[in-house]
Each structure stands twice: as structure tokens, then as C-alpha cells.
Specification:
- By secondary structure, the chain is mostly helical.
- It has a single domain, classed as Globins (Globin-like), CATH 1.10.490.10.
- Helices cover 60% and strands 0% of the residues.
- It is built from 6 helices and no strands.
- Helix 3 crosses helix 4.
- The radius of gyration is 27 Å and the shape is globular.
- It starts with a helix and ends with a helix.
Length: 115
């Protein structure tokens, strides 16, 4: 009697487990945002354009008058690279410390975002 109950249960369990196996379809591996953005070369190009826009924006370019521009660009690329899952390591200051005492207003920040 137990055999008559156990056999169908084992058979059903086997079918259920077998149905859950990979049927030759591999899950799509999601690329990192860094890769989807085009990697370091693409980030560098965007940062170059952005810094160029900021340099010509009279509303805020005074904040960058004494900045080491090549270092600023490297830090921006590394920060974005790391934040998007790339291999870079950002070693600059945190944003609160980096901008402390600069007197940046909402209008200044908005001008930067517009650039």
C-alpha cells in the first residue's frame, strides 16, 4: 500500500525538479553601468566636455580659477568610474569636505548641473 502512494509522489517530485533544470538557456549577464556607459574612454570624454563647459560658465568658473584642472578631471573620472561599477578607485576627498567653506549657493550648484 505504501508503495502505491510513494511511487506517484516520487514520480511527481522528479518531474517537478526536472522541470526546474536549465534548459540550455543561460541567464543574461547584466553589464555594469560603467561598461554600458562605454568605459573609461567614454567617461573621460564626458568629463572633458563638462569641465570645458564649466570653464566658460561665468556664473561659476571663479570657483575653479585656482584648481589643478588635470587633477580635477582625473578625480571626476575616478569617482564616476568607481560609482558606476568600474575598476577605478576614487582617492579624493569626500564631497562635503572638498567643498567646505566655498560658499556654494543653490544657484551655483544649479549652474553646474546645467553645464
Amino acid at each position: 500500500m505504501l508503495w502505491k502512494l510513494a511511487f506517484p509522489l516520487v514520480l511527481i517530485a522528479g518531474l517537478l525538479v526536472g522541470g526546474c533544470q536549465d534548459m540550455g538557456m543561460k541567464p543574461m549577464m547584466q553589464k555594469s553601468l560603467y561598461d554600458r556607459l562605454g568605459g573609461k574612454d567614454a567617461l573621460t570624454a564626458v568629463v572633458d566636455d563638462f569641465v570645458g563647459n564649466v570653464a566658460t560658465d561665468k556664473r561659476i568658473n571663479g570657483f575653479f580659477a585656482k584648481a589643478d584642472i588635470p587633477r580635477l578631471k582625473r578625480n571626476l573620472v575616478d569617482q564616476i568610474c568607481q560609482g558606476t561599477g568600474g575598476p577605478c578607485v576614487y582617492t579624493g576627498k569626500d564631497m562635503k569636505t572638498a567643498h567646505k567653506g566655498m560658499g556654494i549657493t543653490d544657484a551655483d550648484f544649479n549652474a553646474l548641473v546645467e553645464d
